[in-house]
Design goal:
The chain is an all-alpha fold. It has ten helices and no strands.
């Protein structure tokens, strides 16, 4: 749910003048979606957390540079994306969504009892694995559109590409995700658990 523009502008103005409560409110509102976006891009919660924190530090330190003709979220996500790309180039992280899924599940370990939370975790893992098989551009477009509900025009501006190109990437990505989830034995069985 996006924050009304006038409230966001007031919070930004107050935060840029040192109002910690206003800065905390901006953080509280945008942190969940930014963290989810970075987690889907990287496949790792720890990386998402680190980059999310660093993005907020940079944003808060540079609030005086923000141009309020644009959406704050677009500026924030652009900074976070640059930080993610830099971190990826510097550290070349290894993505292990299986371990991540086990660590985040309610299970006591790999042999734990199947629960509703575990089934949901399996579906999340299957989707994350499938997302990681997409190219980076396609993965980002899918996450921005489906998870964060960004309109095509905003995604196009954020990614500096024509709207038609964004639509094409989105269409091809959906087809590829569907094919990956249906054809891959592990993914197919995980997704079937939801309907079992």
């Amino acid at each position: 749910m996006s924050m009304p523009r006038d409230i966001e502008r007031k919070l930004i103005a107050s935060a840029s003048q040192g109002d910690r409560a206003a800065a905390a409110e901006l953080l509280r509102h945008h942190q969940p979606s930014l963290r989810a976006y970075l987690h889907r891009l990287s496949g790792r919660q720890d990386i998402a957390e680190d980059i999310c924190q660093e993005a907020f530090v940079r944003v808060l330190a540079n609030l005086h540079r923000f141009d309020d003709r644009f959406r704050f979220s677009t500026w924030l996500f652009t900074i976070a994306k640059r930080l993610y790309v830099n971190a990826r180039q510097k550290h070349a992280p290894v993505f292990n969504t299986e371990a991540l899924g086990w660590r985040e599940s309610n299970s006591t370990g790999p042999g734990g009892n199947a629960t509703a939370g575990e089934v949901a975790g399996h579906v999340k893992d299957a989707l994350q694995d499938a997302l990681m098989e997409l190219g980076e551009v396609q993965r980002e477009i899918v996450v921005l559109f489906h998870q964060l509900d960004w309109p095509i025009a905003t995604i196009a501006a954020h990614m500096d590409m024509p709207e038609g190109t964004v639509k094409s990437h989105l269409h091809r990505s959906r087809q590829k995700l569907r094919k990956i989830l249906v054809e891959h034995a592990t993914h197919a069985s995980r997704v079937k658990e939801v309907w079992a």
